[in-house]
Design goal:
Elements: E1 2-8, H1 13-23, E2 29-36, H2 42-49, E3 54-56, H3 65-78, E4 83-86, H4 95-100, E5 105-109, H5 121-128, E6 132-139, E7 149-156, H6 163-186, E8 190-193, E9 196-199
Parallel strand pairs: 1-2, 1-4, 2-3, 4-5
Antiparallel strand pairs: 5-6, 6-7, 8-9
Helix pairs in contact: 1-6
Bound molecules: glycinamide ribonucleotide (GAR).
Glycinamide ribonucleotide binds next to helix 1, strand 5 and helix 6.
């Protein structure tokens, strides 16, 4: 079983979808540890509810980003985590964490990358006026939402959408897409060639 470590800053609905998919056998994996940068994150409650060890590390209690991420990397490595999943983790991952888990950090973003990276994917898509948006699961690199794309799902943008209605239509797809991408990784079916991620057929 693939050992998963999840980083989350907020509500944790993607964390929930991942925990559920592990629980029901869709993902041949197990959430080993959940780490948040926000003490009040509901994600922490969800993990506790599921009996999963949680940690909260606040960047402000460290002297540098290197030390903060070093502490996270130590926790993840100490739990022998094999894949790190960012699930609403609202920070830029730095070189310390990237180097510790090279090619083994995934993120989900609420837009069709490379459009609308950053903190407000849904709002930016709505303001731009695109008619399709969606979500993207990608590997994390040093840029802002720039790493190799693993899977994407599209949803329509409707004339009467607000940021909230669009976000919830996208979120529904996130909850399907993220477990799917993790499952492929767990099955060893993801191959990265430069920017392109290819999915091997099932044996
Ligand atoms: C999700 O929509 C996720 O795609 C987005 O935050 C939300 C977290 O929801 N992530 C980003 O915008 C990353 N820049 P959740 O806490 O309920 O999973």
């Amino acid at each position: 079983k693939l050992r998963l470590g999840i980083l989350a800053s907020g509500r944790g609905s993607n964390l929930q979808a991942i925990m559920d998919a592990c629980q029901n056998g869709f993902i041949p994996g197990e959430v080993i540890i959940v780490i948040s940068d926000k003490p009040g994150a509901f994600a922490l409650e969800r993990a506790k509810q599921a009996g999963i060890p949680v940690h909260c590390l606040e960047p402000k209690s460290f002297d540098s980003k290197e030390l903060y991420e070093g502490a996270i990397a130590d926790l993840l490595a100490g739990s022998e985590v094999e894949l790190v999943c960012l699930a609403g983790y609202m920070r830029l991952v730095g070189s310390t964490l990237l180097e510790a888990f090279q090619g083994r950090i995934m993120n989900i973003h609420p837009a069709l990358l490379p459009s609308f990276p950053g903190l407000h994917g849904q709002r930016d898509a709505l303001e731009y006026g695109v008619k399709l948006s969606g979500c993207t699961v990608h590997f994390v690199d040093e840029g802002i939402d720039t790493g190799p794309i693993i899977l994407q799902a599209a949803v329509p943008v409707l004339d009467d959408d607000t940021e909230e209605t669009l976000a919830s239509r996208i979120l529904e797809q996130e909850h399907l897409l993220y477990p799917q991408a993790i499952k492929l990784f767990a099955q060893g079916r993801i191959k990265v060639q430069g920017r392109r991620v290819k999915v091997k057929a099932q044996e």
